[in-house]
Amino acid sequence: MGFREDGQATLEWVARYLEDRRELPVLARVAPGEIRAQLPRKAPDQGEPFSAVLADLDAILLPGITHWNHPRFFAYFGITASEPGILAELLIAALNQNAMLWRTSPAATELEQVALAWLADLLGLPASWMGHIEDGASTSTLAALATARHVAPEGRSVVYCSEHAHSSVDKACRLLGLELRKVPSDDEFRMRADGLDLSDAVALVATVGTTSTTSVDPVPALADLCRAADVWLHIDASYAGSAFVCEEHRWALAGCERADSLVVNPHKWMFTPIDCSALFTSRPDDLRDAFSLVPEYLRTSDEDVINLMDYGPALGRRFRALKLWAVLRVFGREGLQHTIREHVRMAEEFERWVELSDEWELVAPRPFSVVCFRRVGSDELNEQLLERVNAAGRVYMSHTKLHDRYVLRLAVGNADTTDADVRLAWDELNVYAEELEAG
Length: 439
Ligand code: PLP
What we know:
The protein has 13 helices and 11 strands. The protein has helices at residues 3-20, 34-37, 50-61, 83-95, 106-123, 137-151, 167-176, 219-229, 266-269, 284-291, 320-356, 379-392, 419-437, and strands at 130-134, 158-162, 179-183, 201-207, 232-236, 261-264, 277-281, 360-362, 370-375, 398-402, 405-411. The strands form 2 sheets. It has a 7-stranded mixed β-sheet with strand order 1-7-6-5-4-2-3, with helices on both faces. Strands 8-9-11-10 form a 4-stranded antiparallel β-sheet. Residues 76-77, 136-138, 166, 168, 207, 211, 236, 238-239, 265, 277 line the site of pyridoxal-5'-phosphate (PLP).
């Protein structure tokens, strides 16, 4: 079979998958090693047809897939590989760009600037900021903190963040040899700004939309402290930054315009397939200073160009801007707003059901599309409940711990999630809770 036939079969496979995915168990049901045991230990000597890959995808791999692109994936943060994003990934692979230098891909280099300027405009970020696409927020935060370390006054080596900041901040500090100090949060899981002494600080990471509860740190107060102590302010808005596309969520943007850098992940809540993280900065020259390293074999005579390799840890860079651009064009501002509003509305509805029931309790405020809740009863009951609901396969949810208590999370974020999907999650929770309580 030729490329066209294989391509049509693959596109058909994807179309069928998108149509039928609701029927699949959201969480993979295989035991560790089960997939590996079914696969040959060596590559074939003779090449096989591509149809053999598709056949094994169905027969062997699919049972080992946890369906992140399922409308009832409510764990961690719900995400979406939308249709324009999926098609753009195919084009990205076909073009196989490596946008390390402007001349190695003028289009990918310039489209990245355009797509990120569009994104900044959609989110209400300052038009003067420069954006740079990374694989994930972990890399974006690493790049921001590496730059902060590079420009920090002599003798400073401490990074501050809230006790609810993502572990990517811990990892970046470990890699960079910086000391991390976790600041306690208030009763709504926001970093406390009072009494914070930043005199030894390289950077402060404020989170807008924390991983457990999506709480929003008090950025205006933290920005004041950073300004006074000459400290780099990095904002982790990986998840919640996408909500800025809606005016009613712009309250969470307050103070962000004073940041030195901010990360938002279009692959989290902006319907772009993994991987796509946007690192914005008001200090591109400092980023360039921290990262630029040009060996002879990469020198060019091009003038007045941006070489993207100069602004981050990676040399080789995929054409990720194409999928972001495709998503922004096909959704449009109104499409993005509508989908995010629907997610927030559905989460609000779920929150109301919890609130109205004596058997359930809410355990954190819900600023966006994640509800933190638990069944009234013990931690063990809630833990078993989550295991049972997830094993049944119709929905997938995850947990966190707040004030040392086991907490369930429902995160709405897939563009195809409907009211019926959220209702089904609620019904499953109630059925299995009653079953557990009945013994
Ligand atoms: N920051 C926050 C607030 C997150 O919730 C996450 C992941 O969920 C990350 C950073 C890390 O994101 P990535 O997987 O893109 O590195």
